[in-house]
Amino acid sequence: PSKAATKQAKIDVKIDGYLSYFDYDSAVLSQQTLSGLLFVADHLKSYPAVQILIEGHCDERGTAAYNLALGERRATAAKNFLVSLGIAASRIRTISYGEERPVSMGQDESAWSLNRRVEILY
Asked: What is the pTM of this model?
């Protein structure tokens, strides 16, 4: 592989698929999430051409409309924090999937806690 391809692969590995989790019915960024987003921001600053998508997700509790709105608030909270760290808003897209893309199909807190997340994709 070329040097450019190798460099690109390193970027993808570092931030693609980054996950951050939320408390029930919350879009508040935890201390752990803030630390992870600092890492993401550092990488974005190192590679100014990189654009990302932040997906907001929820567990299955609540109505579909409520969960879409909550997923959007979660994605927007992550985006706003990255912007506050100097990342251009134009480099970040957000989307909410609400409860439509669970990673765990269980019906208990351990499953629901995995579904309350934002995911950053390259």
From this structure: 0.87
